[in-house]
Amino acid sequence: MQLTSTGIHNGYFDDIYGGYSDALNEIGMPTYSIPFIIEQAPADTVTYAAIFYDLDAYEVTKGFPWIHWTLANLKATTVLANSSQQSPAFVQGVNTWHSPMTDNQAAEASACYGGMTPPNRDHTYTLTVFALDCSLDLEDGFYLNQLTTAMKGHILDKAVLEAKYRQFKH
């Protein structure tokens, strides 16, 4: 399986997908989601799930990754830019902007893409997409652990895409 994105140039996500975007919610969370294309998935794939996260956030969060987007029950192989906000054809989990250790945003406002704002340096972001043999019994607002538990025994293949986002200077 292979992943590509039209939102990456020279190894970096375009500014619109993070803090340099004009698409911000009331607490300053970027909401304009990244596009991606899934190719060469197993023929018996029923749905896809995805996790978009930042391991470079460990220094900022004092020890845990920043989850930017989780989604499940995706049937399309092309996800357009800003799909998270424009009537998504998938369910979305909460991102780390919801955590009381970060911005403590309401779960309803965090069950979507929460973009990149690396405060200390350029960070590397990882998108992992899983091809699944079923739809998952999840609703908007699920947590990452619920997604990973639901996927157990149903993963046919996975692909990883990485790119950086430049340090966000407020």
UniProtKB/TrEMBL annotation:
CDD domains: PEBP_bact_arch (cd00865). This is YbhB/YbcL family Raf kinase inhibitor-like protein.
